[in-house]
Design goal:
By secondary structure, the chain is an alpha/beta fold. Helix content is 29%, strand content 26%. The protein is built from nine helices and 13 strands. The chain has a seven-stranded parallel β-sheet with strand order 3-2-4-1-5-6-7, with helices on both faces. Strands 11-10-9-12-8-13 form a six-stranded antiparallel β-sheet, covered by helices on one side. The radius of gyration is 19 Å and the shape is globular. About 2% of the residues have low confidence.
């Protein structure tokens, strides 16, 4: 029996991991595998996945699964999973993914896994508060929409109807006829029953313009020290306008918190329960600023000023 396989795409902070958890709840009685891909060296979101007993969970980090540097490892892992008694495989791609190579990857998988993977399409989630700005300047956002079979407009509670209408028009210009769903908190019912797949991925055309992105730069900050939530907030606020994404798990004096910032949206939530989290607090920063490492160091020294390591 073939494994029904879905790819999940979406730019940094759009809500991919929340969507993934929502989908996993729908599949609670199914044999499921998950591959998570992170642009950075460490996958913070792995800590946030609602793991169930028997689920196969893999991570592929430090780049995009659609790039030649990682696509071989990605194909190999899919082929390994195809040998297991699975019902579903969900692949969460990096926020910076440009999926034009998906046809080549799936052809390789078909050959090596003897057509035991049943590709059901790509689901792309976009952030209603940032999409129109990003789609004009970031090729990854455009290409993710182009290769989608379903586009989810998330966070509609944060914008007005006229903006949502503009977003829909923009999506349909890139991918005419694609199914669009509007939601908040990445909640979409019955995705697996709807059959959103609209056309062969090989018929879609990648962007001809490849030079508009300024490039993305990432840095990782770690500390073993607990810090005050007040100093953490000041530190994050100082970097919001210079980053696309800030996320991580931080041990504060009041407990473990999850930092999740996209664009100028800032979210810091205290995590309940007895889980101590990672040994070190870890924060990932993704930006198109070449000097992001220096900016992070300065922000930390100005607002937190405890021992740290930056990579």
């Amino acid at each position: 029996m073939s494994v029904k396989t879905y790819f999940i795409a979406g730019f940094l902070g759009a809500g991919k991991t929340t969507l993934l958890n929502n989908l996993l709840r729908e599949l609670s009685d199914k044999r499921t595998a998950v591959i998570m891909n992170e642009f950075g060296q460490v996958n913070i979101d792995l800590e946030l996945i609602e793991y169930k007993e028997g689920m196969e969970l893999s991570e592929i980090n430090n780049g995009s699964i659609f790039c030649t540097c990682l696509s071989g490892s990605f194909v190999k892992r899919i082929v390994e999973l195809a040998k297991l008694p699975l019902d579903y495989l969900l692949v969460e791609s990096s926020g910076m993914a440009r999926p034009a190579s998906i046809g080549t990857i799936l052809d390789q998988v078909d050959q090596l896994a003897d057509k035991s993977i049943d590709y059901q399409g790509m689901i792309t989630i976009v952030d209603a508060t940032t999409y129109l700005k990003l789609v004009k300047s970031v090729n990854a956002v455009q290409e993710q929409v182009i290769y989608s079979d379903l586009v989810i407009i998330n966070k509609i509670d944060l914008v007005d109807e006229s903006l949502i209408s503009e977003i829909e028009k923009s999506i349909l210009l890139l991918n005419p006829g694609v199914e669009i769903v509007k939601t908040k908190f990445a909640r979409v019912d019955n995705i697996f029953e709807q059959g959103y797949y609209v056309s062969e991925y090989k018929e879609r055309q990648p962007l001809e313009e490849c030079g508009r992105d300024k490039g993305m730069f990432k840095t990782l900050l770690k500390t073993k020290k607990r810090i005050s939530e007040k100093s953490l907030l000041k530190f994050i606020e100082a970097l919001l306008t210079q980053t696309f994404r800030i996320k991580g798990l931080v041990k504060t004096e009041g407990g473990l918190v999850h930092v999740d910032c996209a664009g100028e949206q800032l979210k810091i939530d205290r995590l309940e329960g007895n889980d101590p989290g990672p040994d070190n607090s870890q924060l990932i920063f993704i930006s198109n600023e070449k000097e992001i490492k220096k900016l992070v160091e300065k922000g930390w020294q100005d607002n937190v000023a405890v021992e740290y390591k930056i990579i």
